[in-house]
Specification:
The protein is of the alpha/beta class and about 375 residues long.
Length: about 375
């Protein structure tokens, strides 16, 4: 028996091992994984000190793992096997019924208080009408998609607590409106964002709260093969890719993006070049930027200042019907006083639009505290 095992190893496993080893040496080193949406480890720089303290071997191990030949296929195979064995969560992602859903971390009370105080301080200083819109995740609105025994904390009570403390602001509740359409395609299957169609119901609630007359939903499908952040994070590859729609509006007069120095101008608020890469969500306003200004052509004479995370990207074009300019500010990428970058007096309305996930797990609005 022992002799037979040795022969099997020699004739089958050993050649396979040599082939994989050779493939690893011959395959070019990759810098970025499109499917995982992250940069991969590179060959570490050797030094005697790094060898002695163990950091060199740790980085080398990370490099081998990241650069292993057919890495994405191995990840997919692993997730398939784990799913077959009954595992319904992978790397902070619930594997639900034909959909992946974010598993929100427990609410961090310090972050919540920081964000709330930032909003209140800015509201008091700006002396402008302010609205706040917190977006619940798919796990809150579509719990039937969660796998059996999945633990997801209730978001509605927390949203209401925050709204109660946002004294003087217009609090825009979305949960009821979204639940009315819970059976429809309002959240992506492979991404943590809402779809453009889901964002439209938030737009309707915004219009209702501010007394605006909304425009009808009119959208164009721009992608049939969108695999989003949850696809990348989970390693699960058997969920059907998403389709992606973009709201069509004649009010689109382009946008400008300011990173450092002078802003760059574009003819549209949409960026088709991102449909050719893995991060197709960049179709909406490109990548995350500190300040993006959208221009409308409806001569409303009004300007909106929008503090946001990426949930605002597919909704903002709908608001061009009501504002000549919409300035979107992502505080994560700003380290200056906002008053040094923008003249607050120019704006007619302020909106804070964040996902519940962002609001409880980070504190970008703390930068607005006085």
């Amino acid at each position: 028996m022992k002799t037979t095992m040795n022969k099997a190893f020699f004739y089958l496993i050993f050649p396979l091992w040599i082939t994989i080893l050779a493939a690893n040496f011959l395959t070019p080193t990759l810098e970025f994984s499109q499917n995982e949406n992250r940069y991969l480890a590179q060959i570490p720089e050797f030094s005697l000190n790094s060898l002695l303290n163990g950091s060199y071997m740790a980085k080398l191990d990370e490099y081998v793992n990241d650069q292993f030949v057919f890495r994405d296929h191995w990840i997919s195979l692993q997730s398939d096997l784990e799913y077959a064995l009954g595992k319904r969560e992978s790397n902070g992602v619930f594997i639900g019924k034909n959909a992946l859903l974010s598993k929100l971390e427990d609410a961090n009370q310090a972050n919540i208080e920081d964000n709330l105080q930032g909003m209140l301080d800015f509201f008091a200083a700006a002396q402008k009408p302010c609205a706040v819109m917190l977006v619940p995740s798919a796990a809150e609105i579509q719990p039937d998609k969660l796998p059996l025994f999945a633990q997801s904390w209730p978001q509605d009570p927390l949203i209401q607590q925050i709204y109660q403390k946002a004294a003087g602001m217009t609090a825009i509740s979305l949960s009821a409106a979204l639940r009315e359409h819970a059976e429809e395609y309002i959240y992506y299957r492979t991404d943590h964002h809402w779809t453009t169609y889901g964002a439209y119901f938030a737009y309707l609630e915004y219009c209702r709260a501010l007394g605006l007359v909304p425009v009808a939903y009119r959208a164009e499908t721009v992608s049939w093969n969108f695999n989003g952040t949850l696809y990348s994070k989970s390693g699960v590859r058997f969920i059907k890719p998403d389709t992606m729609e973009a709201f069509q509006t004649a009010a689109d007069a382009g946008c400008s993006i300011k990173t450092n120095g002078e802003p760059a101008y574009y003819d549209s608020v949409y960026f088709p070049q991102y449909l050719e890469v893995k991060d197709q969500y960049g179709y909406f306003l490109g990548q995350n930027q500190p300040i993006v200004t959208l221009y409308g052509n409806q001569a409303t004479g009004k300007k909106l200042l929008l503090f946001k995370d990426s949930y605002a990207h597919c909704l903002a074009p709908m608001l061009l019907q009501h504002y000549d300019e919409i300035v979107l500010v992502d505080l994560r990428y700003i380290n200056s006083e906002i008053s040094d970058l923008l003249d607050i007096k120019e704006f007619d309305q302020i909106l804070f639009l964040y996902s519940v996930d962002t609001f409880v797990s980070s504190n970008p609005l703390a930068k607005l505290q006085r």
